[in-house]
């Protein structure tokens, strides 16, 4: 029977929070733009701008704070982390990013286990070392 | 006064480069074409034109002029980074159409920001 550790629970909560914030941020950015444009053009809707603006500000802040935490949790490379920050400035883009991350997480893992990876690395390094030593001793690699 | 006129002229030129960059994204989004030389050149043009405008704006600021609203400076930072940030956001998408859409979205937001720059400057 699988057991759930506190670390798993924290990770699940963090990912769920990131998912919800990405949904909110992706929808609230175009919403604030729309409401603000209507306000600038017509002069009406100032309270709406204040309300949507406050929600967008909160969602943006939480999203920006969550990105480094999720990046650390999922060991994102720098490029993915920079994309995660960038999508916060493009309408609807956080939705696409969240979908991509979810797809990556739910895809069956094809990576080797740590032990298999270590064994593969040792074997590859060993092969390379022996090839190098052949080159040093005979002047050319042995043909098989 | 010369610096102020120059700032406005450069801002108009920067707006035109943002329009061109946005249209380039729209064309890519519609035709599902990959980003080419035009994408790179329009991005460089936007960054350079906004940077030069901001430099003259900073000179104005140092010289004693200041914008009507201080939000102008935050909008300037946003306008400077919006197109490169949108292109960076588009790199996560597999499809060329998606990448074009990211540029189009970023460009439209940038145009809204530029409009606010004219109002707050």
Description of the structure:
The complex is a heterodimer of chains A (144) and B (121). Chain A folds into two domains: 6-110; 112-144. Helix content of chain A is 78%, strand content 0%. Chain A contains five helices and no strands. In chain A, helix 1 (6-42) runs antiparallel to helix 4 and helix 2 packs antiparallel against helix 3 (78-86). Chain B has 121 residues and is an all-alpha fold. Chain B has one domain. Chain B is 83% helix and 0% strand. In chain B, helix 1 (2-31) runs antiparallel to helix 2 and helix 2 (37-62) packs antiparallel against helix 3. Classes of the chains: A mainly alpha (144), B mainly alpha (121). At the A-B interface, helix 1, helix 3 and helix 4 of A face helix 3 and helix 4 of B.
Task: Summarize it.
With 144 residues, chain A is mainly α. In chain A, 78% of the residues lie in helices and 0% in strands.
The count of β-strands of chain A is 0
Give the CA-CA distance, first to last residue of chain A. 50 Å
| Amino-to-carboxy terminus distance of chain B | 14 Å
Mean pLDDT of chain B: 93
Low-confidence runs of chain A: none
Topology of chain A as a string of helices (H) and strands (E): HHHHH
Number of helices of chain A: 5
Structural class of chain A: mainly alpha
The gyration radius over C-alpha positions of chain A equals 25 Å
Would you tell me the overall average pLDDT of chain A?
81
Share in β-strands of chain A: under 5%
Quaternary state of the chains: heterodimer
Largest interface (CB within 8 Å) is between: A-B, 19 and 20 residues
Top keywords for this entry?
heterodimer, A: mainly alpha, 2 domains, 5 helices, elongated, B: 121 residues, mainly alpha, 4 helices, 83% helix
